[in-house]
Amino acid sequence: MTRWIDATFVRGGTSKGLFFSESALPSLNADRDTAVWDRLFTSAMGSPDPFGRQLDGMGGGVSSLSKIVVVAASARDGVDLDYTFGQVSVTEAAVDYSGNCGNLSSGVVPFALSAGLISAADGWHVFRLLNTNTQKLVDVGLRVVDGQAEVAGDLVLPGVSGTGAPVELIYPDPAGSRTVGLLPTGKAAESITAGGAMFEVSLVDATLPVVIVPGAAIGLKGTESPEEIDANVHAMGMIEQLRRNAAVRMGLCESPEEAPDVVPKVAVVTAPEPTRLLDGTTLAAEEADLPVRMISMGQTHNAVPGTGAMCLAAAAQIPDTIINRIIRRSRPGAVGPEVRLATPSGVVTAGAVFDADTVTATSLFRTARVLMRGQVAVTD
């Protein structure tokens, strides 16, 4: 039986997803069991798809194009909107709610304005959001024109064609989004095993839990294209083992087999060097502080998840993390509030405020656009 549910298709940053008003969905029980939502979301996105293309749904066959956001006007004092992020598996009938999405966070306010969940006079506004996945606040700054989020602007976002209006994301108190704190184990760098080998990694949780590993440790240069890394069966196998073992170390699960799909993500980093971009151009080494290739849901991201970028900016300021060491060696005295990440699509700049041995805020600029409004077909 086919059902039609009000939905909006939104691009936020370098991701796209289906946005729903919570009122348009079936109510959850008192325990917030999401099973009834999961069936709708996987059907809408075309999962599971053994061919990995999601042709029978709205998904795009990769993790950055297989996402769901549920938004509601907030009843909390000082908070405008509550939102829940769901990462829909491409090949399985599963939705993971264990993390937040920085890219699609930039689409929450444009969607809410379009859907009439909130209203605002024309001009620049800062809206406060609560992400229910992490129970963390997010401040979103953007300009409103004719009651809607401004779209036209001059901001170039690597991985997105054209330009757009800036959407500023600020995460106050980002430390410990899913774990006990900024450094879940209390160490800036430590050894962890995978595949019978030992690796030195940094385990950091600021807006998102991330495992940071030098590319050379797993046989990568760290500047390969996403396709080259995904095709490297040995490296991808090591990365997944490392990720699962790190999930246990970070307190996200009891065993590697129970590791969430969404977190932690893995950031493969290396010292600055020329990087070939997806558009065929070459990025000079001096144009970025750190080449990064981030692995999400078993695939190498074409750019970088927004929350991942902010976590790396935080890690850059923490003394003795792997990123901090790389930047200090390559550019002595250059560690500051912003870090320029050389991604496969170009340079992404993220910021973090480090004060009194903790990160008090992270920030990032994105662009966003509502692409389509209507109804999506789902099957029960």
Secondary structure layout:
Blueprint lengths: L1 E11 L2 E7 L13 H11 L21 E7 L7 E8 L6 E2 L5 H4 L2 H8 L7 E9 L4 E10 L2 E2 L17 E6 L17 E5 L2 E9 L3 E6 L11 H6 L1 H17 L15 E5 L5 E2 L5 E2 L6 E7 L2 E2 L5 H12 L4 H9 L7 E6 L2 E10 L2 E9 L1 E12 L1
Parallel strand pairs: 2-3, 4-6, 12-13, 16-18
Antiparallel strand pairs: 1-2, 1-21, 3-4, 4-5, 6-7, 7-8, 7-9, 9-20, 10-11, 11-12, 13-16, 14-15, 16-17, 18-19, 19-20
Question: Helicity range of the residues?
Answer: 10-25%
Write down how many β-strands occur, each being a DSSP E stretch of 2 or more residues.
21
Integer average pLDDT: 96
Low-confidence region ranges: none
Number of domains: 2
Pfam families: PrpF
Organism: Brevibacterium linens ATCC 9172
Keywords: Isomerase
Protein name: Acetylornithine aminotransferase
What does this structure look like?
By secondary structure, the protein is of the alpha+beta class. It folds into 2 domains: 2-174 and 367-379, Roll (Diaminopimelate Epimerase, Chain A, domain 1), CATH 3.10.310.10; 190-355, Diaminopimelate Epimerase, Chain A, domain 1, CATH 3.10.310. The protein has helices spanning 35-45, 102-105, 108-115, 226-231, 233-249, 306-317, 322-330, and strands at residues 2-12, 15-21, 67-73, 81-88, 95-96, 123-131, 136-145, 148-149, 167-172, 190-194, 197-205, 209-214, 265-269, 275-276, 282-283, 290-296, 299-300, 338-343, 346-355, 358-366, 368-379. The protein has a 19-stranded mixed beta sheet that branches. Strands 14-15 form a two-stranded antiparallel sheet. β4 (81-88) and β5 form a beta hairpin. Keywords: Isomerase. Belongs to the PrpF family. GO terms for molecular function: isomerase activity.
